[in-house]
Amino acid sequence: MQKEVEYENLKNECLKESEEPIVFGEGRLDAKIVLIGEAPGAKEIEMRKPFVGQAGKNLDEFLEIVEISRDDIYITNVVKIRPYRINKKTGRKINRAPNKREIDKYSKYLFKELEIIKPKLIVTLGNVPLKTLLNDFDAKISNLHGQVYNISNRIIFPLYHPAAVIYNRSLRDTYLEDLNRLKKYIKEKDIIK
C-alpha cells in the first residue's frame, strides 16, 4: 500500500510541475523489469499511456521475442512530456529529441519511480535513457547495446530503441541478437517468476 501512495504522490508532483500534458509510467509497481524510453510522442500524449500506436506495435514485437508480457513489467520514459517543434511548412507539431533542460527536469521523477519499484533489471531503449542512467552524456548505445552492466547497484541492459530499427533497417539483425541475449539473461537469472 505504501508503494501505491508514494507513486501517486510522485505522479501528482510531476503533474503540478508540468506545463504540458504528461505521460507517466504504467505497469506493475512490483515489476522485476522496467523498460525506459526517451519521451512520449503524439499518440502517447493522446492516450496518456507509454508506448502505444506504432511504438506500441514495436514494443509488442519486442515483448513477444523476449517472451514476457506487458502485464509483468513497468514501462516509463525519461521525459514525461512530448518534446516537439513546429513544422514550418505545415504548422504542426513534430517530435524532436528531448533537450538537456527537459532531461534534467524529468529524470528526477524517473529515479524516484525506480526507487519505488526496485526492479531487478532495467532495459534502456535508446541513447537518452542510457545516458541518463549512466549519468554520462558521451555514452553511445552503438557501443554499449546488448550487454549487462551493474551501475550503482542497478542492473542495466541497453538496447537500441525499437523505432530505430524502422529508420535504420541495417540495425535489425543486431537488434534481434540483442533481444535474444536479453531473453537468455532473463531466463538464466530467473527474473520473472
- Oligomerization state: single chain
Percentage of residues in DSSP E strands? 15-25%
The proportion of residues forming helix, as a percent range, comes to: 40-55%
Structural class: alpha/beta
How would the global form be characterised? globular
Order of helices and strands: HEEHHEEEHEHHEEHH
Largest beta sheet: strand ordering? 1-3-2-6-8-7
Alpha-carbon Rg, integer? 16 Å
Report on the structure:
With 193 residues, this protein is an alpha/beta fold. The strands form 2 sheets. Strands 1-3-2-6-8-7 form a 6-stranded mixed β-sheet, sandwiched between helices. It has a two-stranded antiparallel ribbon with strand order 4-5. A hairpin with a 2-residue loop joins strand 7 and strand 8. Helix 1 runs antiparallel to helix 4. The mean pLDDT is 94.
Key phrases:
alpha/beta; 193 residues; two-stranded antiparallel sheet; 17% strand; 6-stranded mixed β-sheet; single chain
Question: Helices, strands, pairings?
Answer:
Blueprint: H1 2-17, E1 26-27, E2 33-37, H2 42-47, H3 53-66, E3 73-77, E4 84-86, E5 93-95, H4 100-117, E6 121-125, H5 127-134, H6 141-144, E7 149-151, E8 154-159, H7 164-167, H8 172-188
Parallel strand pairs: 2-3, 2-6, 6-8
Antiparallel strand pairs: 1-3, 4-5, 7-8
Helix pairs in contact: 1-4
